[in-house]
Amino acid sequence: LFQLGFDLRVGQSNYLLFSDTAIEDAKTLIERIENRYADLPKPLDYPYAPDKNDTLLNTLDYNDNIIFPYDNYLKILEFALKDFLAIDDIVAGFPFYGAWGRDTMVVVNALLHCPNQLETVEKILNKYRGYLKNGLIPNMIAESGRETNYDSVDSTLWYIILLWKLGKRKQTVKYWKDVIALTEEIINSFLHNESHPFSVRYDGLIELPPDFAHGTWMDVRIDGKAITPRNGAPVEINALWYNALCSYEAMCLAYCQKSRKKYQAKEEFVQLKELVKQSLQKFYQDGYLADRIVGEELIMEIRPNAIIALALPWQAFSQEILQQVLERSFKELYTNYGIRTLSPKDIRFHKKYYGTQKERDLAYHNGSVWAWLLGPFCGLYERAYKGIKTKEEIIEALTSFISTFRNSFMKGHIASIAEIWDGDAPHFPKGAPAQAWSVAALYNIENYILFLQEGK
After folding, report:
1. Can you tell me whether residue 440 is helix, strand or coil?
2. Dihedral angle at the C-alpha atoms of 193, 198, 199, 203, nearest 10 degrees?
C-alpha cells in the first residue's frame, strides 16, 4: 500500500498537489493557489500566533457564535461564486456536474455584479455563441464521452437577455450592432426553423410537444420519458420568450441612442412581442399562473415556474397579480432553504429526496427544495411591493428570506450551498453539495440588499 508522509515544524506548511495533467512547475502552481486565497478572510477564532498556548483547541469557538463579520461574509460569498469559474465557462456543481447552458446563464447574471468579471462574462457568452446551432445554445457541452446536446429552450432565451444586460455595461456601438444581428438570427430560427423540437403557436406562445416535454429546467426522464411533463406552453418559457423579444427591442433603441443612427426593430418581432404579452394573460386563474397550457386547457399546478416568470426584467402582468402569486407561493412553496418544486397539497408531492435513482428522480422536481429559486422569489417580492412598502420593509423581508444561509456562512457552517433539500422539514441538503446557481442566487440577493441600503 502506497503511503506518503513528511514532518512539519510548528507553523510550517506543505502542499499535496493533485492534478489530472502533469505538473511541470509545482512552485508556480503553489504560488497561484496561495494568491487565489490570499485575501480569503480568516474566522475570529483562528489561532494566529504559532504559540503553544494559542492552538486551535484553545481558540476555537464552541458556542456557535458568528465567526465571520458581515463584510467578511460577503467576501467569502464572492469566493464561493468564483469557485465555479472554469476560464470561459461555469461548472454547474461539485463534484459531479460539468457545464450546463442554463445553469451557466443564471450564474453569469450574478457575475455581472461581481467586481472585475465583465471580461469573464463576455468570454463565456462568446464561447456559447461559438456553439450556436440552428439558433440554439447547448443544454450541455460534451465531456467524458457525452455528446453536446441542445435539449433546452430556455438556455437560449436566458442568453438573449444576458446579451442585453452585458450591452448596458459595455455601451459601444459595435457591440449593439453585433448582438442585434445575432438576436435577429436566433429569433428568426425560433420562428421559422422546422427542425426545432418546439414551435410557435398561433398566439405567439412557444409550445413543446409531448416528446420534448423535458425541454425546460424540469428535465428529468426515466426510460426516456419526462416524469415532470412540461409539454404544451410552459409559463416560464413564454415569459422568457417575451423578455427575449423585449431585450431585442431594447438593443435596437440603445443602438440608436449610442450611434445617433436610425435602426428600426423588425416590425414582425415588435408585433410578436405584443401578441405574446397579450397571450401570457391566459395563464392567470384564481390568484396564480398555470404551469402550462395544453391546447387551450390550463394545467393549474402550484410550481415555482410562475415565480421565475414574474421575476424577469420585463413584466406582462399587473402588480396585483404579482402580489397574489407571491402570497400563494410563500404559503405553499417557500422554505428557509429555497422554494419547493411542487405544493405539498398536490398528491404527487414527495416529502423526501432519497432511495433508488428512480425514487430520487421522481422527487427531484416534485417537491424537492431548490436554493436557486430564492433569487426569482426575492425578485418577485421586490416587484410585488415596489412603491407600496418602504425600502426598509423590503430590505427586512429579503433579509429574512436568506437569513438561514447568511447565518450559516457567518458561523462557518457552510462554504457553499447545496443543490436541493428535502421538501418537508427537517430539510436535509441533497444532490450536489456545492451548486453554482444556488450560490449565485444568494450573491444576487445580497447585492440587491446592498443596492437598496445605498439608496440607489
Report:
1. helix
2. -150
Q: The whole model's pTM is what?
A: 0.93
First-to-last alpha carbon distance for the chain, in angstroms, is 62
Which residues is 207 bridged to in the sheet? Answer: 199
Is residue 404 helix, strand or coil?
helix
Q: Where are the beta strands (DSSP E) in 347-437?
A: 369-370, 420-421, 429-430, 434-435
Extract long-range pairs of 109-112: CB within 8 Å, 24+ residues apart.
109/158, 109/162, 109/165, 109/440, 109/444, 110/81, 110/439, 110/440, 110/441, 110/443, 110/444, 110/447, 111/81, 111/440, 112/162, 112/165, 112/166, 112/169
Residue 312 CA to its chain's centroid (Å): 12
Any residues with CB less than 8 A from the CB of 118 and at least 6 apart, and which? 112, 166, 169, 170
The pLDDT tens digits for 342-391 are 999 999 999 999 999 999 999 999 999 999 999 999 999 999 999 999 99
Report pLDDT digits (tens) over 399-446: 999 999 999 999 999 999 999 999 999 999 999 999 999 999 999 999
Which triple of cell numbers denotes residue 84?
Answer: 465555479
